[in-house]
Amino acid sequence: MRAKPAILLVDDEIRSLEALERTLEDDFTLFTASGAAEALAILDSEFIQVVVSDQRMPDMSGVEFLKQVRERCPQVIRIILSGYTDNADIIAAVNEAGIYQYLLKPWRPESLLLTVQGAVELFRLQQENELLNVELKSSEPWLKVRVDSKREQMRERSAMDNIVRAPDSSMSKICALLSRVAPFDISVLIEGESGVGKELLARALHYASHRRDRPFVVENCAAMPEQLLESELFGHKRGAFTGAYQDRIGLFQQADGGTIFLDEIGETSPAFQAKLLRVLQEGEIRPVGSPRPLKVNVRVVSATNKQLPELVRAGQFREDLYYRLSAFTVSVPPLRDRPQDIPLIAHSLLEEACQHYQRPAAHFGEDTLQAMQDYRWPGNVRQLRNEINRMLVLSDEDRLGAELLSAEVLQAAAEEQVAELAFLSGLPGDLKTRMEELEKQILRETLTRLRWNKTRAAAELGLSRVGLRNKLTRYGLEK
């Protein structure tokens, strides 16, 4: 079985360590240390991919510790947690120790989890890029073919047609719209709850465009303070602030010719929004500390789980930037609104999990799939993935029964079934009368949802136009 990514947690406060462990234990192999000396000993003996360290520790500060980590294990991704809010100190610390991201206390579990997942992905990409660079330097033609083949596989995996969905899913319309807009260099805003797959759609949009051979770069705007975000996106010059010991190329420059995906754009400050607006208007960035701007050719795709028009009305988001970002807008429905997608997505995630954990092929019981469709999935596809991984790890068989589902999912599914039975029991009359009332309600719901398009309603219900018209007349449902 393939091991989970190894994460080292360093904090001298036991309760803080326990909170970190609770947040990350399902997805990673965790090592813990209460001080820098103990942590460095673990680094010498274990293959660690990411270090998460507190800033305030008795033997040395988190920044000093992470500087030693960089010297010993430069490939390890470094994250620091602190209660300090001084932006200058934040940026200085991050650059001084080569820290991947800085999280302010009190951190949110979802932000920490996303940050560590991003760090693990960066570690993997670093290793992959090193391999690609070695292969590209080789004079052997077959190695170059191998590299080109790998990149082509990435394009195929990210194709719009490969986004898992049912034939009648509302996602099909969204994918069709994005396919239409992909060839045109206009900004796209993707709305939707956390975990619905906004980054997946943004990546598919990139690979369907003429920029497919150039970089696709991702940044979570909610994961770092404003000044650090500016440095991350626009870059900085050496000496621009304390701790800026060398020039840094920002993500906009790295994405030149390609696409940048700005997730959680609604979390940015008005001051940062003004600088981003200039990038969109002028096509140029100004690195922190630079006397002159730099031209960049980047397509901006942004995403939010908030209602930006409401933030505009509240004065929390610039109206001019909103219209720049939302030249084309799509809204991704939550998983609970497309239950027909759940079995297909679940099977796809199970196949991935079996490959990742090197387990034999497995399948779901019918009761399991039904319970999954009855649950509302507030965390959407991300929560569904975690649930499936958990089930696979707990199972000793190739069939995953409903008993492996977490109590939260099972209880909610049961409550949905009880509510459904309560609705049926509330219908008046004998069996024939109840069936007619139920049929009437189904007709009304279908026509309302389809905006009284009778052709579509008849097709969905398996009726002829004449049959549908007769039923509408019978139940008095003419619009």
TrEMBL record:
The keyword RNA-binding does not apply. SUPFAM superfamilies: CheY-like, Homeodomain-like, P-loop containing nucleoside triphosphate hydrolases. Residues 6-120 form the Response regulatory domain. Pfam families: AAA_lid_14, HTH_8, Response_reg, Sigma54_activat. GO terms for molecular function: ATP binding; sequence-specific DNA binding. It comes from the Bacteria. The keyword DNA-binding applies. The modification 4-aspartylphosphate is found at D54. GO terms for biological process: phosphorelay signal transduction system; regulation of DNA-templated transcription. Residues 164-393 form the Sigma-54 factor interaction domain. Gene3D superfamilies: 1.10.8.60, 3.40.50.2300, Homeodomain-like, P-loop containing nucleotide triphosphate hydrolases. Keywords: ATP-binding, DNA-binding, Homeobox, Nucleotide-binding, Phosphoprotein, Transcription, Transcription regulation. InterPro entries: AAA+_ATPase (IPR003593), AAA_lid_NorR (IPR058031), CheY-like_superfamily (IPR011006), Homeodomain-like_sf (IPR009057), HTH_Fis (IPR002197), P-loop_NTPase (IPR027417), Sig_transdc_resp-reg_receiver (IPR001789), Sigma_54_int (IPR002078). Transmembrane segments: none annotated. This is Hydrogenase transcriptional regulatory protein HoxA. It comes from Aquitalea magnusonii.
